Amino acid sequence: MPSKPTDITDDVPEVVVLRLPQYVRALGELFRQKVVVVSSQQLGIQLQMTPAQIRKDLSYFGRFGKQGRGYPVGYLLGELRQVLGLERKWNSCLVGVGRLGRAIINYPGFTPEGFNVVAAFDTAPSEIGETIGSLVVQPIVELERTIKEQDIRIGIVAVPATKAQEVIDQLVRCGVKAILNYAPTGPQVPEGVRVRNVDPILALQSMTYYLKSD
Amino acid sequence: MPSKPTDITDDVPEVVVLRLPQYVRALGELFRQKVVVVSSQQLGIQLQMTPAQIRKDLSYFGRFGKQGRGYPVGYLLGELRQVLGLERKWNSCLVGVGRLGRAIINYPGFTPEGFNVVAAFDTAPSEIGETIGSLVVQPIVELERTIKEQDIRIGIVAVPATKAQEVIDQLVRCGVKAILNYAPTGPQVPEGVRVRNVDPILALQSMTYYLKSD
DNA sequence: CCTTGTGAAGGGGTTCACAGCA
DNA sequence: TGCTGTGAACCCCTTCACAAGG
């Protein structure tokens, strides 16, 4: 028995998982620049982290380095992509096709990273049936069926704050365990469901605290 | 001498400052719902935090509560807005008027929160002089003068990853101490400059780690 | 000499638990 | 009784420092 069902997170601290994508991105850049080996020191400068932290983070997942040399860029990149599950494609659905939702559908940055928005939903009857990008806007009623049919694991929420909790509840009920939330709310979700909030207002408000003092 | 110049952060942990805007938002909602008093317990449920954490966080800034009752919503809201510097307006400038930059200019969510985008810049000569929303796109050369003239304290970066560091260096040189970065890079900035990255790709990539396991 | 991997030490934030007070 | 404010305990992440190895 390799692991209990409760073993959702292995034993890797969540902060470490949050940093992993940054390593992947930095290594990707180095790889494109044909850099073959990189030390934790060098990576640390690039990412503004301590070398010790990088080594400790990586050591949760294996021994990727060579003493005296550093880490083989290509190998480490591949391993980390594996760890993060980036070697496969992930289907997502968007809920809310207002101004923001449209921008998200037309954003060309997701696909090259392996994230495909394969369905769009809205509650407003006026929007249903409309074509945005290559997607036909579906009514929320179709959510469950589409999620099942298209193996959608990620929900992207771009509805007004007032509707966000409700929409997220529906996504969760359909089995979605990862939500990218663009609505200005901190939604409540059950254990085992991950939410990442994209919230420029909160980001700005936490900076003005420091701006005040000069 | 009340404080040394190094006293940028008082002594409030940065994580606490990051949570403050969430309290402000939650209290704003309660206020609109005419709720007069709220306990750390109730707030904790709403924000999915422990009551102890909320009380400790708030205690960094004053004694806002009443024993046996809780916190007066309106009063606490006002105090926290004061602490965060949200009682004034903040001018910002946008650099990069591509697809994303345009969406940001036309985003109606900043202004009601006191954040005004009052200038737009781009490096591409073809964009210069164009009008987007109510802004005329300026060449980067104008950055310093405009920042001074319009008392701009916040830079919003929406340029390609390859240009981001360069643009941020320029903003920093012009005295900007707060940067909202939409480019997919973790830029390097000197001490005393704050950056908040808006990066949906990193957000998604840190969730797939958990999705993998089911 | 250089850099990894890692136990151990250290530090900082969270939670506890209770005094204080309405 | 109910809830705040807070020192102290706790816990977890970060950093240190060094053995191991190229």
Key words describing this protein structure:
8 helices; 214 residues; two-stranded antiparallel ribbon; 7-stranded mixed β-sheet; 9 strands; homodimer; DNA-binding; alpha/beta
Derived structural class of chain A? alpha/beta
Give the number of DSSP strands of chain A: 9
Mind telling me the CATH superfamily name of the largest domain in chain A? NAD(P)-binding Rossmann-like Domain
Return the CATH architecture of the largest domain in chain A: 3-Layer(aba) Sandwich
First-last Cα distance of chain A: 59 Å
Provide structural commentary:
Two copies of one chain form a homodimer. Chain A has 214 residues and is an alpha/beta fold. The first copy, chain A, has two domains: 14-83, Winged helix-like DNA-binding domain superfamily/Winged helix DNA-binding domain (Arc Repressor Mutant, subunit A); 90-202, NAD(P)-binding Rossmann-like Domain (Rossmann fold, 3-Layer(aba) Sandwich). Helices cover 41% and strands 18% of the residues of chain A. The first copy, chain A, has eight helices and nine strands. Chain A has helices at 14-32, 40-47, 51-59, 73-84, 99-106, 143-149, 161-173, 200-211, and strands at 37-38, 71-72, 90-95, 115-122, 131-132, 135-139, 152-157, 178-181, 194-197. Chain A has a seven-stranded mixed beta sheet. In chain A, helix 2 packs across helix 3. The longest helix of chain A has 19 residues, at 14-32. Chains A and B meet through helix 1, helix 5 and helix 8 of A and helix 1, helix 5 and helix 8 of B. Chain A binds a DNA duplex (22 and 22 nucleotides) through residues 13, 15-16, 39-41, 50-53, 55-56, 58-59, 63-71.
